[in-house]
Write a structure and sequence with these properties.
heterotrimer, A mainly alpha (289), B mainly alpha (356), C alpha/beta (250), A: 73% helix, 3% strand, C: 250 residues, alpha/beta, Rossmann fold, 10 helices, 10 strands
């Protein structure tokens, strides 16, 4: 019984991170119709940013998260405006290849700068945790879950309550009609991608506090984000959050099977994806576009 | 039209010359080459480079069957390469089979695997198929490295598999010809497919799957067959690679980078054509080797240490990928093959067609 | 004698709405049948049910007495049921001739010609539909009426015994419609049963021996064109309640 509770806690904590990674990916996919293969790279760029600021200035890693968000937003905005917008109407293979190319550039530039050594953010409170009757829940992971949910809520608010958010939704549902009512498509697309990147950046910052990072550590997150979106169904932020939490739970249980473990991160993600796509292609909650 | 015909003729002549050189050069003795001071022949490196290039010709040409002809953006074909490599590897290293008996099973195993994953995955379209196939690539590599049975790694685990060296005189030459043969087979297969009922069916699926179905194309069977054919050829390359390299592990048998390199090669040379992917493979492979410093002629960049060159090569690859998809989405064959002229206007048109 | 195609209570729902709701009729070999109805009547849905694109939610479809409900589209095509799409779906990278030749290469099971013979057949079909002169053009060079012809040609090339034509006249002007009708007659004369699905009534009257009117997924009328078109319910469905009443009063 305690094992079960422990698995659920582990799953939900991991699920928070997946939700944070997933919301940005889902936004970009839903609005721009791009499966962003550079998403994992953006996550890891955020992680290195947190690590770099923390190491250089000793600033509390949680305080670096807003910096991650702003920096990644700016980066994402420029990338979309300058590069991805150029092929947004091309067949999917091309947007796919382009984002893979961006991924390749980002990861290898990180490798040039930071080498492939493991880096981690260790603070005074890193080891501390909440004791729940024998199960210790690290404070950092709890906070990460909270922040992940906060980021998702903020994104949902922004999309539903602000002018720019509504413009993004309009662009997502009908590009041509949105243009007719006077929305600047290039700007709206760039803001969307920027927001996706900002979410990825914050998620990366959280990840840097939880695990040791290398430039290639972002790679599984792209596949996992895809699975999270499939689980939740493309569209609403809340659906992606549920997808993230569900995936966290599924993974926790899958890794608890004897002989399994964290080395099978990709295989588990893939297995879940195939299972969902084949049995329930509209997602557990939503529907396919 | 005359310009394009002239270009085509020049390309054909050039191509024949390159092929003739590649095939005939190793036949001349190395001593003779050294005496004549022919640079490429004096080095073992040449064989390695030529064999790897031929290997990529196989992979790009095979990808073209599912990606170019059928229009399904397969992003995980490296799984077939790895499965081919591990099939031969396991048979040789664990079951002590002779290489030539083990090799034919590599394409068979890859094709069977392709049928098994293809049946569910090829029902998906667009993004879903692309990412799902990407997942196949990484998941299989992960399983191969980490699967244990009673604490013992089944496929050699992280330490990989070692095979005894294949005893033939002129080993380098032998494997070069073997890989070249595989390249020839894949090109011949593509040539035959394009001229067959099967090929027309695949192209019909690419152009409009629903319309293909209502004129009587068994779309599921055709897609799975195309996937399996691509897998078999890629698996063959993997099988040859295993014995040639003597050692295989997850890293050299399931490199994620191959997935996108083979696509970029096919794209560069022109998807859906017979020779395009092969041409793209030769050009891009030489470029990759040049950038990562494995060619006799190397690039010295200020401020870049030598060991960073392979990483930098990947950055350049990413930039190249971006440039090709933005400016030359129909492949360079579109202008080098004479269908269009390479002008600023052409590049701007490519840009305008897809941008907002 | 068993009819060539027999529909019994065919039903197809989307969400809770029945797009086709218990449609029953049969088609005899060699007929030329019109199916008309206002927008949203379920004409295209019905066609998709027959050709296997949709799975039925109820009822049965029989081909020469044997049920074909639930068969995949390619299997229906191989039995000899050809169809066109309302929104044309040409194979964009191929020439006009290649498009039609692919139809000939596949299609009905009766004979599967080798490549050379398929191209020969393509040429004769192109002759029949009046596209012979444009055989070597890419599809992108064709006008809208020609694209509709190509759609028909590709379906004819599959050697169908029954041909379902989905609004091949829509969007054409009067002269073009007359040409297209000529083409349909020519195809019919080769011994093919033809079902013409149309929105425009004029088309049906000119060529069909029998007309079925669909409205809201149900069969409203089934009979000779002149009888059906005088049917009050048909007039109502097409022209609206008020207009029908005025017609009655005046």
């Amino acid at each position: 019984m305690a094992d079960l509770v422990q698995l659920v806690i582990i799953g939900l904590l991991a699920g928070g991170i997946y939700a944070a990674v997933g919301v940005g990916f889902s936004l970009v996919w839903g609005v721009l119709n791009i499966v962003n293969l550079a998403h994992g790279a953006l996550v890891i760029v955020g992680a290195y940013l947190t690590w770099q600021i923390f190491t250089a200035s000793g600033l509390d890693p949680f305080l670096t998260l807003p910096i991650d968000a702003v920096a990644l937003f700016a980066f994402g905005y420029v990338v979309q405006r300058g590069v991805i917008n150029r092929i947004i109407r091309a067949p999917l293979l091309f947007t796919f290849l382009l984002t893979f190319g961006l991924n390749l550039i980002a990861v290898n530039v990180l490798l040039l700068i930071f080498k492939s050594d493991f880096r981690s953010v260790t603070t005074a409170y890193s080891g501390a945790g909440l004791d729940l009757g024998g199960i210790v829940v690290p404070y950092i992971r709890l906070a990460a879950l909270g922040i992940a949910l906060l980021v998702a809520a903020a994104l949902a608010l922004l999309l539903n309550r602000t002018r720019v958010g509504l413009a993004i939704q309009a662009v997502g549902s009908d590009r041509d009609a949105a243009q007719l009512v006077g929305i600047d498509l290039r700007h709206a697309y760039a803001v969307t991608y920027g927001l996706g990147a900002a979410c990825a950046g914050v998620a990366g910052g959280l990840i840097a506090m939880i695990q040791a990072i290398t430039p290639t550590a972002g790679e599984p997150y792209t596949l996992q984000a895809f699975v999270v979106v499939i689980l939740g169904g493309l569209g609403r932020v809340s659906a992606t959050v549920v997808g993230g939490l569900v995936f966290g739970l599924v993974e926790a249980f899958a890794q608890s099977i004897p002989g399994s473990g964290s080395v099978f991160a990709n295989a588990i993600a893939f297995g879940v994806m195939v299972l969902v796509l084949v049995t329930r292609p509209q997602g557990l909650l939503g529907r396919l576009r | 039209m005359t310009t394009s015909q002239r270009w085509q003729r020049i390309l054909i002549v050039l191509g024949c010359a390159v092929i003739a050189y590649a095939v005939l050069a190793p036949l001349t003795s190395l001593d003779g080459a050294q005496a004549l001071n022919l640079p490429l022949l004096t080095d073992k490196l040449w064989f390695r480079l030529a064999t790897i290039t031929a290997m990529f010709v196989v992979m790009a040409t095979a990808w073209n069957i599912i990606g170019g002809l059928t229009g399904y953006a397969a992003f995980g074909n490296v799984a077939f390469f790895g499965i081919g490599a591990y099939t031969t590897g396991m048979l040789i290293a664990k079951a002590k089979w002779p290489f030539l008996l083990a090799l034919p099973l590599a394409p068979v195993a890859a094709a069977i695997f392709a049928v098994l994953v293809g049946l569910p995955l090829l029902r998906l379209r667009g993004h879903y198929f692309a990412v799902a196939s990407l997942g196949v690539g990484v998941a299989v590599g992960e399983l191969v490295q980490n699967l244990d049975y009673r604490g013992e790694p089944i496929f050699g685990g992280a330490s990989g598999l070692f095979m005894p060296i294949f005893a033939v005189p002129n080993r380098d030459l032998y494997f070069f010809y073997l890989m070249l043969g595989a390249a020839g087979v894949s090109i011949a297969v593509t040539w035959a497919v394009i001229r067959s009922r099967f090929g027309y069916g695949l192209i019909a699926i690419r152009e409009n799957e629903e319309a293909a179905a209502v004129i009587g194309v068994n779309t599921t069977a055709y897609k799975v067959a195309a996937f399996a054919l691509a897998a078999a050829l890629t698996g063959l390359a993997g099988g040859i690679f295993a014995q040639w390299n003597v050692f295989i592990d997850q890293e050299n048998s399931f490199p994620i980078a191959y997935n996108v390199e083979m696509i970029l090669m096919a794209l560069l040379g022109g998807t859906g054509t017979v020779f395009g992917p092969a041409a793209g493979a030769v050009v891009l492979q030489l470029l990759i080797q040049f950038l990562s410093g494995s060619l006799p002629i190397t690039l010295d960049l200020p401020f870049v240490p030598e060991d960073a060159m392979p990483v930098l090569a990947q950055v350049v690859l990413g930039v190249l990928l971006a440039l090709v998809v933005i400016f030359a989405p129909r492949g360079v064959i579109d202008f080098f093959g004479g269908r269009s002229r390479l002008t600023i206007a052409y590049l701007r048109r490519s840009l305008r067609e897809t941008s907002i | 004698m068993t009819p060539q195609l027999d529909l019994r209570n065919v039903t197809k729902r989307f969400g809770g709405v029945a797009a086709v709701d218990g449609v029953t009729f049969s088609i005899a070999k060699g007929e030329i049948l019109g199916v008309i109805g206002p927008n949203g009547a379920g004409k295209t849905t019905l066609l998709n049910c027959i050709s296997g694109v949709y799975r039925l939610d109820g009822g049965d479809i029989r081909w020469h007495g044997v049920s074909i409900a639930g068969l995949a589209p390619y299997r229906v095509a191989r039995l000899g049921v050809g169809r066109t799409f309302q929104i044309v779906k040409p194979f964009g990278s191929m020439t006009v001739r290649e498009n039609v030749a692919v139809g000939a290469l596949f299609g009905s099971d009766s004979e599967r010609p080798p490549l050379r013979a398929a191209f020969d057949r393509a040429d004769s079909v192109l002759e029949l539909v009046g596209l012979r002169m444009k055989a070597d053009l890419p599809v992108s060079a064709l006008t809208i009426p020609d694209r509709k012809r190509l759609e028909v040609a590709r379906a004819v090339a599959t050697r169908p015994k029954l041909l379902l034509l989905d609004e091949v006249m829509a969007g054409l002007n009067n002269v073009e419609i007359d040409d297209a009708l000529e083409m349909v007659r020519a195809v019919h004369e080769t011994g093919v049963t033809v079902v013409l699905i149309e929105h425009v009534m004029r088309v049906i009257v000119g060529v069909c021996e029998r007309v079925i009117v669909l409205d809201l997924g149900r069969t409203l009328a089934d009979g000779q064109p002149d009888v059906v078109l005088r049917d009050e319910r048909v007039i109502q469905a097409y022209l609206g309640e008020r207009y029908a009443r005025r017609l009655r009063g005046g």
